[in-house]
Amino acid sequence: MVTLNCDMGESYGNWRFGDDAGIMPHIDCANVACGFHASDPWTMLKTVRLAKSHGKAVGAHPGLPDREGFGRREMRLQPEELTAAFLYQIGALSGILSAEGVALSHVKPHGIIYGMAARDMDTARAIAAAVKPFGVPVFGLAGTCHETAASELGVPFLGEFFPDLTYAPDGSLIIPRQQSAIDLDAIEQRMTRALTEGKLVATDGSVRKVEFQTVCIHSDPPNARDVAERVRRVIDTTPGAGASGP
What whole-number percentage of the chain has pLDDT above 70? Predict the structure, then answer.
């Protein structure tokens, strides 16, 4: 059964990002930002409570310490420093989850560090080392360093597909610094093809295989609620994908 997850809880202070309340009913798993690239303790608590009220699973969404760049600028940390940064963030969310009586479901790295870990084993191992003590799966790109590092360290792994992002010819994700409105018909076509054929079309028109157990969307496009609703419908109406949503 394919699940739908979303990166959310990314507001902080007086700044508001993402339509969490509008998206939450349509997803299965909430990836909650942990304070480094976005979010703050109060936002984390509110997002956990929102997910709990809808019966959704909650995972940690740690990133690089780069609020100004929203975690989408490359930053080189030593492997042990990266592990410590992720332990810190996952631990913070775990404390809030414990207070609310909710179990940590998974860990999903955020932004540019996600792409860096897909192609660099030291980065991927550093992240897997941070996830391992919590005994939960890590989300990543199948067939990349994400999966290899998780396997080496004995961390459960779930592959992801991103219908609201584009893929480079080498299969890497193209992550925009700023989100614009998503073409809903295009996203439906991508999602349907991935579910029925296990394939995606890269920016150069080449066709690549894609393996995944969960689908990720983002909360910051202007029409994120519509994206969540459309992707949910495609998953629920595609034979074999599994109707896991509301």
Answer: 97
pLDDT at 242: 58
Cα end-to-end span (Å), the chain: 14
Both structure tokens of 103? 């179990």
**Tell me, what amino acid is at 108?**
K
Q: In which band, very low, low, confident or very high, does the pLDDT at 246 lie, cut at 50, 70 and 90?
A: very low
Pairing of strands 29-33, 173-174: unpaired
Burial zone of 119 (CB within 10 Å; 0-12 exposed, 13-18 middle, 19+ buried): middle
CA distance 126 to 112: 15
DSSP 8-state symbol, 133: G
- Long-range CB pairs of 150-156 (<8 Å, 24+ gap) are 150/124, 152/125, 152/128, 153/125, 153/128, 153/129, 155/128, 155/131
Phi, psi of 185 (to 5 degrees): -65, -40
Over residues 182-221, the pLDDT tens digits come to 899 999 999 999 999 999 999 999 999 999 999 999 988 8
Mean pLDDT value across residues 76-83: 96
Look at strands 173-174 and 166-167 and give their pairing: antiparallel
C-alpha distance from residue 241 to each of 4, 113, 143, 192 (Å) = 11, 29, 21, 10
